Amino acid sequence: MRMPALVRATVALGALLLVSAFGQAQEAPPTAPPAAPAPTRVAIVDWTKLSSDWTLEVAESEAFQTWFSRQNDVYKQIMLFAYLFDDEMKDVLRIARADAAPSDQDQARLRELEKLSKDRETEFQALKPKDADGTITPQEKERLSALRDCSSRRQEQFAQLKQEMEQEARTKLTELGTRLRDTKLQVIQTVAQAGGVSVVLSSDAVVWSGPDVADITAQVIEALNRDHPAPPAPAAGGGGH
Predict the structure, then answer these.
(1) Fold (CATH) for 38-227
(2) From start to end of the chain, where are the E strands?
(3) Percent of the chain at pLDDT above 70?
(4) Domains in the chain: boundaries
């Protein structure tokens, strides 16, 4: 039985397409397998050693300690003037908290005010028992009230000054720590990228590491001291307060 012409043509076309597809498949190159990812290189850095060997951090830390120590000295000095009135206390704060060293005139003024405060404290202590036993005069009672009020105002002022000084110290220390940390992190990143390192860990957080984990502490310290050195020390006899 003969197939109709249309059926024969359809079968022939299908066979032709199958042969063509098979040929293309044979000619196409095989797909290459995906490349293996590059191994992650890990390094460690000794954060504590960075702080101790970076000359700028050492210098700035010492400068902060010097400033903080002076603030404590200023506060201790101010507390010697517990029986001064408001206008007198303004002179003390102006002189004691100035950046420059006090002049001879200012030093003489501080000695004068310190003696005045001590004399008033002695007077206050002498009036208290007289007030307790009822032998105090009206004028003395008024004087005692004025001295008591003066001392109270100074204690409140001292507490406020201490709070302000502590806040200033915390702010300075936070700003210093942030600036130094950011600089170290930037240098660590630069050194790591130059060495093909993709992960850097603090040595304090590493329990064990193999020989393939590099310690880049020395390179980081070298870069810190080269690119961010400590300022030169002031010349001897340059003064400063």
Answers:
(1) Protein Binding, DinI Protein; Chain A (3.30.910)
(2) 42-45, 199-202, 214-215
(3) 81
(4) 38-227
